[in-house]
């Protein structure tokens, strides 16, 4: 057995959460190492380099809040930052706080085993390195493990096949090529208009039509930025309170779609449509809980799609018939307009499924489509994929893979019973992807930091979620989710995109009450946790 480097803390992942976690652990004076699979930092923003990749949350709130000077100094050129801009920003943060020396790149964690005799985690990497740490913090991201569908004949294709989350770093020039894109989620919807402009021809293979609203990207408004920077801390605090499902600082209208007349309803929806982005979903306060309000909103978007797309048959194929906002909402820049181009074709693979990838293209039940390059915009094994890829074993050799065989269980989305001193940043069972991720990450990192500091000060060896608290928490998450329309369609929140994955609603709706709960747990001496 390789001798292990002794540390206080091992953090897995050098994305937004791993970087901030490292910063915090250093402030506590703890010896810390971040282990990162990628050749550089940035997580999501390191890997997702597909054409058109940009964040869909306003830059002014998709940034760290912990460094006041940084947030005052940094200037974002547009409403939504591009992938390269976010990566530049994260590199700046790393340099500013000298984070790199404690990050090991190009190193994949293979296993983490809890040793009950020493109360320490032994973490081993694919390259054979070993670490022994008191605390293990999984900052592996919610949407990081790509979903590569198993399609017959994939290996026979003569051109390149790229997943959006593993796109070549040097970029891809689509000019002169016949391109095919499989998948129309956020990644596909961003990539498709850009690829269509470059490629000779683009074929989009759509399994489900997508509810998408215009992003309305634009240059940053200097007056708005000045106003926010005059009290950035206040803005962040309000943002936390408002950071519900609409992922925006712009508050939702506190009115039901059913409380207003038809003309007023249309006026509000149009006003929100013009605002662009997630605030559209805040037009009314009940679109994720009331089927009729949801339908009114959906009908408005259906009419928009039909007005934009000129060919009625194509418009029909692009118009969803399921609950709006049930799948994670998508923002676009000219997505539906792209289908008016003469070099773009839409193929409904729900009606005629893909049978095989052939040496020269894709064959469906109806046709064969000649292609030079294929892009898989097929998403991720979300929330649990990256965690379960690692062989994590807790007390009595219990494997997390077995513990979660029927879906993830934990307490507060932070800790799993039987896995002491192991924390998951934005784990399943926490608001995570139903919140602005920056806000969710900072809240978790700060909670874990306070917890570790508490333990160090009081010389506690272990903290572990109690079985009772965990069971009650899982029941709570299920109860909250079942009161929403998020359980009414086949979304990745419930694992529907991954064949064989347990159908469990993974994130917890509603951030502000969650924060209150986390604070109450601390105020009551880490209620629900066993400290030893
Ligand atoms: P996604 O939303 O899961 O979309 C994947 C697409 O591929 C869906 O259209 C899906 O169809 C289709 N698909 C999956 N497996 C397939 C198969 N075997 N055969 C054919 N089609 C298949 O993935 P994503 O677009 O990468 O986005 C994932 C999440 O990442 C987003 O929801 C968002 O949270 C985040 N994201 C954010 C941004 C941003 O900030 N701008 C950008 C990209 C991603 P079905 O709908 O039928 O499953």
Give a quick set of tags describing it.
532 residues, alpha/beta, FAD/NAD(P)-binding domain, 8-stranded mixed β-sheet
Q: Using the 3D structure, state the CATH architecture of the domain at 5-145 and 382-531.
A: 3-Layer(bba) Sandwich
Name the CATH class of the domain at 5-145 and 382-531.
Alpha Beta
Distinct compounds present: NADP nicotinamide-adenine-dinucleotide phosphate
CATH topology of the domain at 5-145 and 382-531: FAD/NAD(P)-binding domain
User: What is the total tally of β strands?
Assistant: 20
> Which range does the strand content fall in?
15-25%
Outline the low-pLDDT stretches: none
Distance between the termini: 29 Å
Largest sheet: 8 strands, mixed
Mean pLDDT: 96
**C-alpha-based Rg, rounded:** 23 Å
Instruction: Give me the secondary-structure category.
Output: alpha/beta
Describe the structure in your own words.
The protein has a domain at 5-145 and 382-531: 3-Layer(bba) Sandwich (FAD/NAD(P)-binding domain), CATH 3.50.50. Helix 1 packs parallel to helix 14 and helix 14 packs parallel to helix 16 (511-523). The radius of gyration is 23 Å and the shape is globular. The protein is α/β, with parallel strands linked by helices and 532 residues long. It contains 16 helices and 20 strands. The model has no long low-confidence stretch (mean pLDDT 96). Bound molecules: NADP nicotinamide-adenine-dinucleotide phosphate. The site of NADP nicotinamide-adenine-dinucleotide phosphate has 26 residues, from helix 5.
């Amino acid at each position: 057995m390789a001798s292990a480097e002794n540390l206080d803390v091992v953090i897995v992942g050098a994305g937004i959460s791993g970087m901030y976690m490292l910063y915090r652990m250093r402030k506590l004076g703890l010896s810390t190492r971040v282990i990162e699979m990628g050749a550089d930092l940035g997580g999501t923003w390191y890997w997702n380099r597909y054409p058109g990749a940009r964040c869909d949350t306003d830059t002014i709130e998709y940034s760290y809040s912990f460094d006041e000077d940084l947030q005052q100094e940094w200037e974002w050129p547009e409403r939504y930052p591009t992938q390269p801009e976010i990566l530049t920003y994260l590199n700046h943060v790393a340099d500013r706080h000298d984070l790199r020396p404690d990050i090991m790149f190009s190193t994949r964690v293979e296993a983490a085993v809890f040793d009950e005799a020493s109360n320490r985690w032994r973490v081993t990497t694919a390259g054979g390195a070993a670490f022994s740490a008191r605390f293990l913090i999984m900052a592996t991201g919610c949407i990081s493990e790509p979903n590569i569908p198993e399609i017959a004949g994939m290996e026979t294709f003569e051109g390149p096949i790229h997943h959006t989350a593993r796109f070549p770093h040097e970029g891809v020039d689509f000019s002169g090529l016949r391109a095919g894109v499989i998948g129309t989620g956020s990644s596909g919807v961003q990539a498709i208009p850009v690829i269509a402009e470059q490629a000779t021809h683009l074929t989009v293979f759509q399994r489900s039509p997508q509810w998408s609203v215009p992003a309305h990207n634009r240059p940053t408004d200097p007056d708005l930025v000045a106003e926010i920077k005059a009290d950035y801390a206040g803005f962040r605090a309000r943002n936390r309170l408002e950071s519900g499902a609409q992922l925006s600082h712009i508050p939702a209208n506190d009115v039901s779609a059913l409380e207003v007349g038809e003309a007023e309803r249309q006026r509000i929806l149009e006003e929100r449509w013009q605002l662009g982005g997630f605030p559209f979903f805040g037009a009314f306060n009940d679109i994720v809980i009331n089927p009729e309000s949801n339908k009114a909103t959906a009908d408005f978007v259906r009419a928009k799609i039909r007005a934009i797309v000129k060919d009625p048959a194509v418009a029909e194929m692009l118009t969803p018939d399921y609950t709006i906002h049930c799948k994670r909402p998508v923002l676009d820049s000219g997505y539906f307009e792209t289908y008016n181009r003469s070099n773009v074709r839409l193929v409904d693979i729900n009606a005629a499924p893909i049978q095989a990838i052939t040496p020269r293209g894709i064959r469906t039940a109806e046709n064969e489509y000649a292609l030079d390059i294929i892009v898989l915009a097929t998403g991720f094994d979300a929330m649990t994929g990256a965690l379960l890829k690692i062989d994590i074993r807790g007390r009595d050799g219990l494997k997390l893979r077995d513990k979660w065989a029927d879906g993830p269980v934990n307490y507060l989305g932070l800790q799993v019973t039987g896995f002491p001193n192991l924390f998951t940043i934005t784990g399943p069972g926490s608001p995570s992807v139903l919140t602005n991720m920056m806000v969710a990450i900072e809240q978790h990192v700060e909670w874990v930091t306070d917890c570790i500091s508490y333990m160090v000060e009081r010389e506690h060896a272990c903290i572990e979620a109690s079985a009772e608290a965990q069971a009650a928490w899982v029941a709570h998450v299920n109860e909250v989710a079942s009161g929403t329309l998020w359980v009414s369609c086949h979304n990745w929140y419930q694992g529907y995109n991954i064949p064989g994955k347990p159908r469990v609603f993974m994130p917890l709706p509603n951030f502000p009450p969650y924060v209150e709960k986390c604070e109450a747990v601390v105020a009551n001496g880490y209620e629900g946790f066993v400290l030893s």
